[in-house]
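From the pipeline queue, job 12 of 40. The input is one protein chain; the requested action is below.

Action: predict structure.
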Amino acid sequence: MAEAEDSRVVPLRPQRATGAAAAPAASAGTAGSAHGVAAQPAAQTAPQRGPVMPMVAFHRTELSQILRVYGRMVAAGEWRDYAMDFGKETAVFSIFRRMGEVPMYRVTKTPKLARRQGMWAVVSSQGLILKRGHDLDAVLKVFDRKRHLSLVGD
């Protein structure tokens, strides 16, 4: 009996049948399936959800480019933490020097601005837009700038 219980197939998400196909599927499922598992009655299925709101997110390649710069700055000891926010109109990658502070920089993706100024922007903690453009690599070069320090003396 233990072997029969281990070989059962339990659906994680029950299939929803609609219209005329719902009645035969429900009546056939209550008798039991070939594996001995009774299907769930139609009354116990999950309620229908409303339409999913569109959300702006980073693509895998975009996130890879951002994390490459982030990793380099973490290795240099400049940055320590990050956060990502996904909204209806923008996706934001926030960069922190320490946890719990205001972000030092925010890399924002706003597809609505793609045909105007460019959908990518790097924003400072004061809200100043440091760089904006159409190409993410070009925008992230704002972090590649070397600090030019000169020694004043003799």
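Job complete. Residues 60-143 form one domain.
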